[in-house]
Design brief:
Layout lengths: L2 E5 L2 E3 L5 E8 L8 E6 L6 E6 L8 E3 L7 E6 L4 E6 L8 E6 L1 E8 L2 E8 L10 E5 L2
Parallel strand pairs: 2-12
Antiparallel strand pairs: 1-3, 3-8, 4-5, 4-9, 5-6, 7-8, 9-12, 10-11
Length: about 140
């Protein structure tokens, strides 16, 4: 059974850190681009980070809102992708999902850009993990 399972969410104070995990079963995550998304109550889902497949070099991408604070990484032996969340802010409160797709909107060098990576016939999402940043 093909499945993604997130874990690691919780309640943390502003300025704190969390590490989210996205474990794959039934398929190897290193063959896929893996994206992290979040959705806060009343807001649209937002792509926050992406790591490309190992064959594509494992490039990483971040939304401007989290750049410098979040870090995405892979452990292929564990078949897991991680998202390290540092210096958390109340605005980071959301349900975080991992998926076999990426969608990042950014701005660099005076240019808006979009990273949109998805499989033509495969789309898997985890069930989500809640991150709450509050004092």
């Amino acid at each position: 059974q093909v499945q993604l399972v997130e874990s690691g969410g919780g309640l943390v104070q502003p300025g704190g850190s969390l590490t989210l995990s996205c474990a794959g079963s039934g398929f190897g995550l290193d063959y896929y681009n893996i994206g992290w998304f979040r959705q806060a109550p009343g807001k649209e889902r937002e792509g926050v980070s992406c790591i490309s497949s190992s064959s594509s070099g494992g490039s990483t991408y971040y939304a401007d809102s989290v750049k410098g604070r979040f870090t995405v990484s892979r452990d292929n032996d564990a078949n897991t992708v991680y998202l390290q969340l540092n210096n958390l802010e109340p605005e980071d409160t959301a349900v975080y999902y991992c998926a076999t797709r990426c969608l990042i909107h950014g701005y660099s060098g005076g240019v808006n850009y979009t990273v949109d990576l998805k499989e033509p016939d495969f789309d898997s999402w985890g069930q989500g993990t809640q991150v709450t940043v509050s004092s």
